[in-house]
Amino acid sequence: MIPRPIPERFRLRRTMMFMNAQKPGLIKDAYIYGVDSIILDLEDAVAENQKDAARFSLYHALKSIDYGDTEVIVRINGLDTPHWEEDIRCAVAGGADGIRIAKCESAQDVKTVEEHTLAAEREFGVTEGRTLLMAALESPKGILHAYEIGEASPRMFGVAISGGDFRKSMHVQMIPGGIEINTARSLMLLAARAAGIQCFDTMYPHLNDKEGFEAEVRQNHAMGFDGKSLINPRQIRYVHETFAPTPKEITNAEKIVRAYKEHAKSGVGVFTVDGKMVDIPFAEDAKRVITLARACGVYHGDL
Amino acid sequence: MEIQKTAMAGTLESSDAQITVEPADSGIQLSIESSVMNQYGRQIKKTAEEKLRELGITKGKVKVVDKGALDCTLKARIEAAVFRSCGVSQKNIPWGGVVR
Predict the structure, then answer these.
(1) How many domains does chain B have?
(2) Looking at the partner chain, which of B80, B96, B100 has a beta carbon nearest the beta carbon of A53?
(3) Residue B52 within a domain
(4) What is chain A's pLDDT, residue by residue, as a tens digit (303 residues)?
(5) Suppose A74 and one of A90, A96, A233, B53 were both cysteines; which one would form an S-S bond, judging by CB atoms 3.0 to 4.6 Å apart?
(6) How many CB atoms lie within 10 A of CB A54?
(7) Is B14 near chain A, with CB under 8 Å?
């Protein structure tokens, strides 16, 4: 058995890649791509008559494959199916880092999954509270309840919008620029920040449309997302590059943090850096940039 | 456990294995086909026999068609086939018990 480190509720999750739990060829070497998180999928990728077999495959993958630093999340089937309870038992027994709740619509959905997760942790001797939770919001109701969903459990680390189902429920098609989904993205981002959790965008389905994908990633970053769901390893690098702070941003953040430390000592709260006003909120944001840059491997300084 | 009806699990895709189990009157008849028979035939046999023993299977026909599956995949597919043959593959699986 591979002992996995204790999951961190807040860690770098720029990329979360879906992998079909029923396909051994995929899950056996999912960690080599350098993705931040993999999502082993028991839901949509697994045919209805293979749900049982997928769990056996998932359990053994969790127990015997060394995923290293890659976070391992299991996407369970929706609460309106006969599968989710056993999905939770399997994921928890296998020692997954977290569970992604499909089609989450309310705080109660999160609480229901939390109850079963806790029960499974007790049943299988897993440290109580170890298994993290995230929710996929796939309907207007889910989006409008994003704040309560995010606050529903101390295990919750994030919410993600699921574009396919969401667009279906809104009777719209995917449009470049995202006019059909950007209100939902924005509402979810607001709710996630208010609840103090992370926020992830939906996967981009057109694998051969590199330009469209990259434009969406840049927009995600500009809107304030923490990361994005992916469906193919070749999408990873661009997201990592785009989400890493630029050298200019890092230099600037470094200057602000250093100046802030100097000024704080002498009791000055507001000052200027390169002719721009800086006060405490700027300093906090600069610290966040440094932390992110370090996590992305592009900052090796001493701050 | 006892193999109660014919059941199958797994696919013929690369890195997978397809397992078929059938009831039999006595003894275990294990047959193995593998794309890597020469290198891993013995290992596959050992893993399959061990897994069947852990599941408490004493009689039945078990066919393994291996496409280069890892040990963990082989075990998962055998368990899935046996649990299916007993009609108990959907719920209350003894994770960490005989499934390990």
Answers:
(1) 1
(2) B80
(3) yes
(4) 567 788 999 999 999 999 988 888 777 777 788 899 999 999 999 999 999 999 999 999 999 988 888 999 999 999 999 999 999 999 999 999 999 999 999 999 999 999 999 999 999 999 999 999 999 999 999 999 999 999 999 999 999 999 999 999 999 999 999 999 999 999 999 999 999 999 999 999 999 999 999 999 999 999 999 999 999 999 999 999 999 999 999 999 999 999 988 888 888 888 888 888 888 888 889 999 998 898 888 898 888
(5) A96
(6) 25
(7) yes
Q: Which two tokens stand for residue B94?
A: 């003894």
Range of the structural domain that residue B41 is part of: 7-85
Query: Check: CATH 3.40.50.300 for A15-243?
Result: no
How is chain A split into domains, by residue range? 15-243, 247-295
- Is residue B91 included in any domain, yes or no? no
Whole-Å CA distances, B47 to A272, B29, B54, B75: 68, 15, 10, 7
Q: In this structure, is residue B98 part of a structural domain?
A: no
Q: A91 to chain B: which residues are within 8 Å by CB?
A: none
Contacts of residue A206, defined as CB under 8 A and 6 or more positions apart, other chains included, come to: A212, A213
Among A52, A65, A64, A119, residue whose Cα is nearest residue A92: A119
Whether the CB of B15 is below 8 Å from some CB of chain A: the reply is: yes
**CATH code of the domain containing B33:** 3.30.230.10
A53 and B77 within 8 Å at the Cβ level: the answer is yes
Whether residue B90 lies inside any domain: the answer is no
The Cα A200–Cα A282 span in angstroms is 24
Give the 3-state DSSP-derived string for chain B, with helices as H, strands as E and coil as C.
Answer: CCCCCCEEECCCCCCCEEEEEECCCCCEEEEEEECCHHHHHHHHHHHHHHHHHHCCCCCEEEEEEECCCCHHHHHHHHHHHHHHHCCCCCCCCCECCCEC
Q: Token digits for A150?
A: 């995010």
Show residues of chain B in contact with A84, CB under 8 Å.
Answer: none
Say if residue B33 is exposed, middle or buried (CB neighbours under 10 Å; 0-12, 13-18, 19+): middle
Q: Is B83 on the interface with A (CB under 8 A)?
A: yes
As given in the structure block, the two tokens for residue A136 are 């996929």
What is the amino acid identity at position A113? Answer: V
